[in-house]
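B., you asked whether I could sanity-check this one before it goes into the benchmark set. Here's the sequence:
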Amino acid sequence: MSVKANKLLIIAQIFVLNCFAASLGQAQEYASETLDARKGLFRLLSANEYEVGDYNVRTSIQYARDTDLLEDNRTVEAAQALIAFGYAILPYLQLSAQGGLDISARDLGPQSQTYNLFRFSSALTSAYDLGKRWGWQARRMTVGGSLWVDFSKITRFFKAANIVPTLTLSTDWSDQKIPFRAHFNTSFVPANGGRFFDTNARDQSSNPSVKDFDRFATKTINSYGIGAGAGIEFPFRVVIPSTEVHMLYVQDVGFMDSPKWVTIGLKGRPFPQKNIELFAAADMGLSTYTPTAVTEKPKTYAVPTWNAVVGFGLSQFGKKEGELAVDARLYQRTLDDLDSKNQTLADLRKDLAYNTVTGRVIDAETKSPLAEVTIGFPEQTNIRSFKTGEDGRFKRYYPLLEGARIQFSKDGYEPSSKYLSLKPGESVTIDIELKKGIKNKIGNLVLNIADDSGKSVSASIVLRNLASNEETRGSTDSLGKLNIQLPEGQYQIEISAPGFNSRRDRLQIEAGKAVLRTYTVTRP
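And here's what the prediction gave me:
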């Protein structure tokens, strides 16, 4: 394919990419949500900034069963159905509400005991991209907080609100070869047993009916607790696998019996409508729960050996005005590709109006790149000189280089020159090897031989050093040019060419400098 055809193909690609990017409208990446519609994994919150008007709904069901968990080793089961809704009221603030039904049951031989708990809670969540403020890439370091208020109560609307503040920290590396995001949470959980039972007393004298099963069904504790969680997710194109670890350290219980679990989950958006997400997870209990003695009141709740979660979510139920539901990573890749193509187009525009000179300078002996080599055009006073980079490479654009001489020089090396005769828009690559010379002893002589009509002439050149009487011989090329290095001193030059009169002249070679001479030879 010709250069012109390649350029036309690139321009066409840029046009198509621009059209596609424009068709995506305001599409953006929507971070996934937790089961209660806050940003995060399943139960672990993430710190994510919001766009005003972002909204989502999550619905899920859970089921757990354990045969050796509570004080009487009876089989216990728990199921939960939950629906949650979230809405961003400000760029840094989201309001969410959750409601559902918890059903817990245990086998009592011919009978069973059942709890039907209707839950309702709400949360305010905020986040701020601290890394972006510090000049890092967006979402590298995001901090936030959430205030969750639980109004759930068995027998009446609520006795006292259960308020849980949480601090969040997230770091996003989804732009890497293996994309991932990491999240960290810490929270404070108050003693909340009195919200469901008549007293928070730590013995059974005033309420002897509170058992391990009561704690299991209500997820309450009898002294304050400190929550901590950490997790990682891998936002691949189709699915997002994740792992999170949680612990609620209860003051009066200690580490081993405090609730602990790990959640392994998978989320995916397999449909063309990228606002629909399916998810599934499994909780695995890590606690070594000790059943409570009959004469004592349970201080915390038991975590089942396993718990299964499935559900789906919707974000931005329809489309915002002028918006299409697309995959955010595809959109970002399109923008990156478009930026690259636009840069290529800018380079092409320069190529069409300028000459492009690229190349590399290396040491003739070691073949290693030479940095800080000065490159200039001695006879073009309007062109500034520049230097090579650390890798010895260079690239420059010039309006027109027709009959110009480019020179390469560096202390401790013999200078080198080349003549350039380029057409508009033409490019040239020059690879130069510089030889080490005797510092301050070598000069450069550049000759141009032509007839009286300006036509180049191939000629033989004899240079005699007037001090040492040593002769140096050479010949011009088909363009009538010769570039040669000479020790400093005064020389006599003799020019001879078949069919032309010979010419003689004297010239002075100075160390570290180039001498340019143009001679015209005449016919007899």
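One thing to flag: The two ends are 52 Å apart (CA to CA). Otherwise nothing jumped out at me.
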